[in-house]
Amino acid sequence: MPQTSVVVPTYNSIRTIESCLKSLENQTTECEIIVIDRCSKDGTLDVANSHKTTVIVSDAHRSEARNLGIAKSRSEVVISLDSDMSVPPTMVEECEAKIGAYDALVIPEVSIGRGFWAECRALERRSNIGNGLVEAARCFRRTALVSIGCYNSQLEAGEDWDLQNRAKRNRLRIGRTFSPIIHDEGKLALGEIVRKKYAYGKTIRSYLALNPVVGVRQISPISRILVPGIRLASKDPIRGSGIIFMKTAEFLAVGLGHLGGTIANGEP
Fold first, then answer.
1. Same domain, yes or no, for 39 and 96?
2. Which of 10, 48, 88, 188 pairs as cysteine with 83 (C-beta 3.0–4.6 A)?
3. Band of the pLDDT at 266, cuts 50, 70, 90?
4. Does the predicted TM-score (pTM) go above 0.85?
5. How far apart are the C-alpha atoms of 179 and 89, rounded to whole Å?
6. Are residues 129 and 230 in the same domain?
7. Is 21:50 a contact under the CB 8 Å cutoff?
8. Would the pLDDT of 185 be above 90?
9. Total domains present in the chain
10. Other CB atoms within 10 A of residue 168 CB
């Protein structure tokens, strides 16, 4: 049995799922690949079934889907990836080598994509490497992950941060890898960014209710927009200014989504 299981939730992921699964099959050490598909309509399921994967079809959303994959796995190490991510060939081997000294590992994330906004996102992600407020562990010793309750299935936004916060509160030993995850943003459009953040805003209050102190710091416009934006703009004026504009639009979209969700639920 492989020492590591990689859990990949999917939903209409035809653009990226092939690259994701190929990168896992091409690892220097074998890993178990578990795909949890939310009834995709675009051929994602066919692609997943054409690879050496265990496929679970469920209408579960991302957090619950990850938990289904974790429950299905029997490996000592569990890594959670999104379907638009791929990893270098030595990623699993590095995680297995380092997890012996830790309970969890943060895997740095870099972005690739096409267009100006994708370039801004790539610069932003590079600037966040090593930022404890932004990064969250994706690789866990299975027993440690189960001991803190895995992912909160009630969260649709901030579930990675919530798991990281619980890992810290439970004093799990958290290390990090050298090799990064590659996040394929595709051709990133500002309208799509705003739409996603508006949707996150509708559910982010659930995360903030569970993590009020650190949550406010994580979404603060000062720590997430103003300070890093000025620093990046001084080095790369065009893309740095683009990041300030993009993050401001995201912040406003999250705020409007939060307000809309609050009104829809009849909350004060």
1. yes
2. 10
3. low
4. yes
5. 9
6. no
7. no
8. yes
9. 2
10. 15
Asked which of 132, 166, 188 is the last residue of a domain, the reply is 188
Mean pLDDT of 109-116: 96
The pLDDT score that the predictor gives to residue 74 is: 86
- Asked if 163 and 30 sit in the same domain, the reply is yes
The alpha carbon dihedral of 90, 31, 15, 190 has a sign of negative
- My answer on whether 89 and 170 are in the same domain is yes
Per-residue confidence (pLDDT) for residue 264, from 0 to 100: 63
Residue 25 and residue 110 share a domain: yes
Angle, nearest 10°, between helix axes 237-264 and 116-128? 90
The per-residue DSSP string of 205-266 comes to: HHHHHHSHHHHHHHH-HIIIIIHHHHHHHHHSHHHHHHHHHHHHHHHHHHHHHHHHHHHHTT
pLDDT for residue 268: 57
Residue 71: CATH number of its domain: 3.90.550.10
Sheet holding 181-187, edge to edge: 85-86, 181-187, 109-114
> Cα separation of 268 and 261, whole Å?
11
132: containing domain: 4-188
pLDDT, position 17? 97
Q: CA–CA separation, 183 vs 196, rounded Å? A: 16
Q: What is the mean pLDDT of the chain?
A: 93
Q: Which amino acid is at 175?
A: G
